[in-house]
Amino acid sequence: MTERALADLRLEAERLVRDKEWESLHALGERLRDEDTEMWPSVWGPMCAVAAWHRRMPHAREVLESAIDQGFCQPDFFLEEFGDTFATEAGWAELLARCGQTCLSPPSS
């Protein structure tokens, strides 16, 4: 993938998050995971988990947990997005604790 194509992909994903176009972001998720491995754990994985949550997909939490396992550790960057999704569910405190542990240790491969 060229640098320009990657930049375009990121801009499109940013727009979808900003505009809360969850269905479209969810549809773009596989490409983001495969083509933007640098930003997948820290940005696109969590946002695709939110998109899946809004679409009531049963794997939404698994996507978030996978991002945590891959190194996601800054949920405070996504307070608004998590506030009306995963933060409303039982087990949110445990996920936050896992995020904190991820920041203290290297991600699993």
Characterize the structure shown.
With 109 residues, the protein is mainly α. It has one domain (3-104). The chain is built from six helices and no strands. The chain has helices at residues 3-18, 22-35, 40-54, 60-69, 79-83, 92-104.
List the helices and strands and how they pair.
Elements: H1 3-18, H2 22-35, H3 40-54, H4 60-69, H5 79-83, H6 92-104
Q: Top keywords for this entry?
A:
109 residues
How much of the polypeptide forms β-strand, as a percent range? under 5%
User: What order do the SSEs take from the amino end to the carboxyl end, as H and E?
Assistant: HHHHHH
- Could you tell me the mean pLDDT? 92
As residue ranges, the low-confidence spans are none
The helix content, as a percent range, equals 55-70%
Q: How many discrete structural domains?
A: 1
- Overall 3D shape: globular
Number of helices: 6
Question: Got a strand count?
Answer: 0
> Radius of gyration from the CA trace?
13 Å
Please give the alpha-carbon distance between the first and last residues.
23 Å
| Largest β-sheet summary | none
Q: Which class of secondary structure composition applies to the elements?
A: mainly alpha
Give a short summary of the structure:
The chain has 109 residues and is an all-alpha fold.
